[in-house]
Amino acid sequence: MEKMALTGVLEQDNQLLRQLLQADKSFDMVDRALEIGGRQAHMYFIDGLCKDELLQKLLQYFLDLKKEDMPEKIEQLSAQCVPYIEVSTESDPDTILYSVLAGIFLLAIDGYDQVLLLDAREYPARSVSEPEKDKTLRGSRDGFVETLIFNTALLRRRIRDPQFHVEIHQVGKTSRTDVALCYVEGRADDHFLQRIREQLDSIQVDALTMSQESLAECLFTKKWYNPFPKFKHTERPDAATAQLLEGNLVILVDNAPSALIMPTTVFDVMEEADDYYFPPITGSYLRLSRMLIAMVTYLWTPLFLLLIQNPDRIPEWLSFIELAEESHVPLILQFLILEFAIDGLRLAAVNTPNMLSTPLSVLAGIVMGEYAVESGWFNAEVLLYMAVVALASYTQPNYEMGYALKFMRMITLILTALFGGWGFTAGILILFAALLLNKSVSGNSYLYPLIPFDWQVLKRLLVRRRLWPESRER
Prior knowledge:
5-stranded antiparallel β-sheet, alpha+beta
């Protein structure tokens, strides 16, 4: 089917534009006829996505134009008679359609076979405030928002280098979601960068319904069953900037208040901004503590279950961990019930109104604590150890990593209950296999620099060094 084109006759062009934009079926699609310089004209824009005051000033200027002021070509009109910066001319119907639906102001004038597109967009946006999840004790208090141009500006403010580039891509046949690929030329891997470009342009989906998560699943389709995260998410512009300067790629998706960082390893995922906002000794302590606590949250309950199943192996100095009372419910069931109960409390906390959160939290604590023990459902030791695991899991800055460790812990618990020491060992081997077989988006090892081993890089990841010598070398 031959694509229809603009003719320069406003009556015909207006019919084409109304057919493309379906202007008569949407109340927020504003179309208005007017006269500019003795010629008939028509404008289209989405109500709520344009700056009203700016449009009023532009219309006043256009309406004051006289017949002798109108040049022969629209390019001359754009250059000489449009007192605005972001203006372009366009004749392709598909580009015109996408531009108007994205909030750009369209002006069609009789006698011109192109239209004027003025980027006077003003998206609804919340303030640039500190993200709730990625809070730090020190550092900046700004965070990404749902408006793409604001997010790129937050990165531009921190990287004043002409080698910092932001490429725009559209993903989704229906949504045409704006996706920004950010990188610093000369630091990012060129081969990996080109591959991501091609992937973004070749994604065949109707829409990115879940924003960044939909894009992530389109970029990485292999081994979806491996729970360990393939990407690092951050809502902090300073963290995204640090990753860009280290040579990583950052992807921003319109309507998503966070950045997608790639490629990442397990050590990158477990890093936090506070590691760098404190002196090297304190930052190293925080980083190593987080890694140690992650190991503890995984091993704590399976190891306790293994020792309780084999009381003869409990050393005398650990005899206090034995159950003080008889267990009416198998320990494995107690642990699994509490694993699900903790997630249930998390979901309830998210959906509970603020005015009810405190009394319901007290009620949940009583029911899950004293009453649960007195009723015989749970042993006090099981509740204590699960409480420690639940609290310790919040030291993990990445949700996906926290749940990956949770899934591995549950698998190890079940194997330990079924096969004892052999099951405990098998659970640990499954964890290492999941980490070893998991690959980053670039295809490199997820455990680098541990596998393949690189002591210099590993030392830098485990122990934070001073930043100023590195900056001076650059």
